[in-house]
Amino acid sequence: MKKQELNSRDAIGLLVNSFYTKVKVDNLLAPIFNNAQFFSWDTHIPIMINFWETLLLDTASYKGNTMQKHIMLHRQQPLTPELFDRWKKLFYATLDELFEGPNVAEARRRVESMSSLMQYKIAQSQQKGFIQ
Ligand code: HEM
Fold it and tell me: Which listed site, 2, 44, 113, 115, has its alpha carbon 20 to 30 Å from 124?
């Protein structure tokens, strides 16, 4: 299949759906999603499309608090470095299989910075006295 630019909502929809097709059969990541409380793929996928659209196409369609969600998630199921590595590996594989152009590098940069910040915030949230 010819690679396409990551420059429309449809292309982002393909990215998100293809990434989760991998996640759903992944031995490490699938259980995290399957065990997450009040979680449904039908609501999660459009949220993720809005998230990536906001980061890459500047639409402001995502209004959530990503860091807080993962801090809460970590309290139920530890988000270990191994899980972050797997998440990134599947995400980058999806990007490389399907897309080309400047937004591919931008998406990688966003994942690198968000996953570092997320792991830092998670570690911080375990310090004594952290309330959220
Ligand atoms: C260990 C790696 C990760 C795991 C296991 C994971 C898992 C999850 C799960 C289970 C949810 C659904 C939470 C819920 O709706 O209750 C979620 C939401 C989300 N994740 Fe992750 N995630 C990981 C890393 C990341 C990274 C690196 C990013 C950003 C690049 C990201 C972006 C998001 C966003 C935007 C949401 C939606 C938050 C909202 O509802 O506003 N995740 N994640």
Answer: 44
